[in-house]
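Quick start: what a row looks like.
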Amino acid sequence: LTNFHVIDGADEIEVANNDGRKYKARVVGSDPESDLAVLRIPADHQLPVIAFGSSDSLRVGDVVLAIGNPFGVGQTVTSGIVSALGRSHLGINTFENFIQTDAAINPGNSGGALVDANGHLVGINTAIYSQSGGSMGIGFAIPSTMAREIAQSLLEHGKVVRGWLGIGIQDVDQELATAMGLPNADGVLVNSVEPNGPAEKGGLQRGDVVLTVAGKKTNST
């Protein structure tokens, strides 16, 4: 499981173990919109496999470790904390729900594991915010829960099949909340509804403010 941008446009893909062994890998499926890809490695022996952790249980301040190969120097581990959760509107992917961390992430860390204190996978290191090209303590990882669902879809179908809701939505800021007479700037505003779409059939209307999705509070698109 790696980033799509790591293998995008590659004629040949080689995966190297930290014991020096190398394998020619092939792409099982990729999803540019979430920047994830699944590779198959034709090894003739059992390869070590990381255990998935639950990114849903992460809290700001939790200790995390970032694993990768920054600048091609070799396998490297850096440490930090979860700086923020649910980061979006970054212009990195179509679908964004990033874990932000101050563990040093540099070019070459992409596709590497972000792990918790128990060594369980909680994210896929994907991007950095940097003016210099090096780590400035603002790195982003795709949550493991999201990555696992997408990987499963790629394994089963070779692509990601997404549902269609049929609405246009926008964040509710304080200005909008005041204009609409809302008590506070919570939720997401439905600003358009596709005729005969699933949302309309489900009873959603233009002007509705969605406060929870599947029982979980939501404040962003």
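That is the whole record. The first helix runs from residue 4 to 7. The chain has four helices and 14 strands.
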